[in-house]
Amino acid sequence: MHQRFVHQAGFAVMCLSITAVSFAQPSLPDREPGLWEVTLKQGSSMAAMLEGMQETLAQMPEAQRKQMEQMMAQSGASFSQPNVLRQCLTAEAAKGEFKPTVDDAGMQCSEVDWHGSRTEGRYSMNCTNADGEWKIDGRIWDATSKSYKSEMTLHGVVDNQPVSIEMSQAARWVGADCQGIQPLQ
């Protein structure tokens, strides 16, 4: 069970990293640097995955549980609020161009296909890893310097099983102080 949990946690971190993107495509407004709070829509497959990991975490030995909690906390995730992710944006990342990032060295991704305006946009990209190919499609709307809404779907394979993940979220700027959250790279 522990191996399965670690694999799920690693996959969730990879997916969360995809949501931890710089949405400042030249056509969208630059975001404020600092701490951002991203709330995943209840009932989304990503929120359900994190809630399931919370149950598995409760069954782990204390030392392993604390290690996993620390790893997730450094990434801005908390099992006490599985549908909330906190992100630290540097000034450079807040003004960077739109580009989803994947924190998995084994994942190779195509260039982002982006179409947008001043307040909304759509994107898609394909990624491959040892398990196969991933198709990623997303939409951002109501984008301002201090908030945005987005949704994304990922279709691919994990442990030789087809997986579809939908994420819908709302993000808001909390303040300039990142409160110990590691900055996005």
Radius of gyration: 16 Å
- What is the 3D form? globular
By DSSP, the count of extended strands is: 9
Largest sheet: 9 strands, antiparallel
- Terminus-to-terminus distance: 31 Å
Would you list the SSEs in sequence order as H and E? HEHHEEHEEEEEE
Instruction: Return residue spans where pLDDT drops below 50 for at least 5 consecutive residues.
Output: 1-14, 16-26
Mean pLDDT: 77
Beta percentage is: 35-45%
Helix content: 25-40%
Number of domains: 1
| Tally of separate helices | 4
Helix/strand/pairing category: alpha+beta
Describe the structure.
This protein is of the alpha+beta class and 185 residues long. The protein has one domain. The two termini are 31 Å apart.
Tell me the layout of helices and strands.
Blueprint: H1 2-19, E1 34-40, H2 45-58, H3 62-74, E2 77-78, E3 81-89, H4 91-95, E4 108-109, E5 113-116, E6 121-129, E7 132-144, E8 147-158, E9 161-175
Antiparallel strand pairs: 1-3, 1-9, 2-3, 4-6, 5-6, 6-7, 7-8, 8-9
Helix pairs in contact: 1-2
Name the features:
39% strand; globular; 185 residues; signal; 4 helices; 9 strands; alpha+beta; DUF3617 domain-containing protein; disordered N terminus; DUF3617
Give a concise summary.
The protein has 185 residues and is an alpha+beta fold. The protein is 27% helix and 39% strand.
